[in-house]
């Protein structure tokens, strides 16, 4: 996401860096390039106008004009204004009230509302909440069944809605059921339409009056750009949204909706969908997003992702094995699975400072999802004995493994070469770092 915008900002900063000292002339040129970059990213025109005016005013201050590092001052100003434009401070759900707390998810058909309902329930479950899913869309065929299937996949109970009932009655009764059965959060998957109409809005207003939700969250498709912003504005006028969840952010290379929605509607972005998997929903942090757009990385999110996938006992076991030079293909497989859980390699690289603007030139250098799957398939085709002792893997065994994993002998050989290099690096670190060796490896605990 924001790939094109990041590249443009990197070009602007590169030009400023070559200036030596900043002047009104090169600030004007830099702001003009920033304006063009934002408009190309499909950011709302009025938002761009206000943003560039604020940047220009601050950049022409005496401190910046006297600076010997114009690019650093400029990037600091742009970062602050970007974070302000997309919301300033991160805003979480309003759950500080007597449970059960109803959360209304609203939006148009096709925005990913039902799937997002499941994703949000899973995220709340990880936070030690007891969520309860409620299918309140009685119009779309199979909408109720879809939420039941999602609930089954993540082990979260789903209310048995009657397709012939009034959605308002469904929501009211579901909240009462949640109260009686110890659930503390109720997620209401309300009906959508292909377009906004008064009948839909009236139904949503009635649900709001019946259950008094802690949050009313609009689910909007980021890839629709300014259409998503216009939809958010209308829903906010009719329902007073408390937040927005932007889906398909991983497929939106421009980012116009994410950068415009708060400034245009006043409703903060609370979460973003970054993939199809049910755990691919992240809290939205304006300052971190601004850092990623400017190619400054997002170390805090990277650390949080790593912590979510690290099992402390496994980390200690791995550290012990490394100290004793007992790192095996089995351990190698575990680390690959851990990295895979954290998200796509491209997404992870984008969180590393300085890498944001280099993703295009690095494409193909990092292993993609298919390559990781093939690697894991090769290791899974080995016997337990072979995974624990790679020296056993002679020519005939390699042919058998290639056949069993649907790969080639060359791919098996390449994996073993990569493993051997990792093993040698670990041995060197182990000798140099003693007990801390395992901790020094990226993603290895």
Proportion in helices: 55-70%
Give the amount of beta strand, in percent.
5-15%
Q: H/E element string?
A: HHHHHEHEHHEHEHEHEEHHHHHHHHHH
Residue-averaged pLDDT: 79
Reading side by side through the largest sheet, how are the strands ordered? 2-3-1-4-5-6-7
Q: What is the name of the CATH topology of the largest domain?
A: Rossmann fold
Radius of gyration: 25 Å
How many strands, what sense, and barrel or not for the largest sheet?
A: 7 strands, mixed
Name the overall outline: flat
Distance between the termini: 27 Å
User: What is the H level of CATH, i.e. the homologous superfamily of the largest domain?
Assistant: P-loop containing nucleotide triphosphate hydrolases
Number of helices: 21
Structure notes:
By secondary structure, the chain is of the alpha/beta class. It has 3 domains: 3-85, Four Helix Bundle (Hemerythrin (Met), subunit A) (Up-down Bundle), CATH 1.20.120; 101-296, P-loop containing nucleotide triphosphate hydrolases (Rossmann fold, 3-Layer(aba) Sandwich); 310-440, 434 Repressor (Amino-terminal Domain). It has 21 helices and 7 strands. It has a 7-stranded mixed sheet with strand order 2-3-1-4-5-6-7, with helices on both faces. Strand 4, helix 10 (226-239) and strand 5 (243-247) form a beta-alpha-beta unit. The longest helix has 25 residues, at 409-433. It is flat and about 70 Å long.
